[in-house]
Amino acid sequence: MYSVTKRIEFCYGHRLLEYDGVCKHPHGHNAVAEIEVRATALDARGMVYDFGDIKRVVKGWIDRELDHRMILRRDDPLLEALRALGEPVFVVDSNPTVEHIARVIFEQTRTLGFPVVRVTVWETPASFATYVGD
Question: Is 23 a catalytic residue?
């Protein structure tokens, strides 16, 4: 089994509802997502996947949908106020924890056609969450 991992940097804001700690307030992170794709054999170029293709497609989606956006739960009272102000938001069904964000990126990477097996999102240089597919 072969695998390659591409690191993608992005910035986002969020807050956690029903949470009793400082993360209940709107705040931001400089995040790093690690996208691991795997194959049983190498292609004709001797690659699992071209890093440039992962960057172009997956980073393109992250840049359009997550980078410099507030990631908020669908029922967050801030959502409509931010939309009214024209602020960019990305809406999720669950609390926008780093665990949930890793899963969102995993699922989107799979939808984009990559054989993704793991996504790790570093929320800070010392804290990360990983989502691993079936």
Answer: yes
Render pLDDT for 107-130 as a digit per residue (tens, 0 to 9).
999 999 999 999 999 999 999 999
Q: For strands 116-124 and 89-92, give the pairing.
A: unpaired
- The residue written with tokens 């995040």 in the block is 31
| 123 belongs to the catalytic site | yes
**Based on the structure, what is the number of domains in the chain?**
1
Domain that holds residue 34: 2-132
76: CATH: 3.30.479.10
CA 8, CA 102: separation in Å to the nearest integer?
A: 12
pLDDT digits (tens, 9 = 90+) for 69-113: 999 999 999 999 999 999 999 999 999 999 999 999 999 999 999
99 noted as active-site residue: no
pTM of structure: 0.95
> Residue 71 is encoded by which pair of tokens?
């990631």
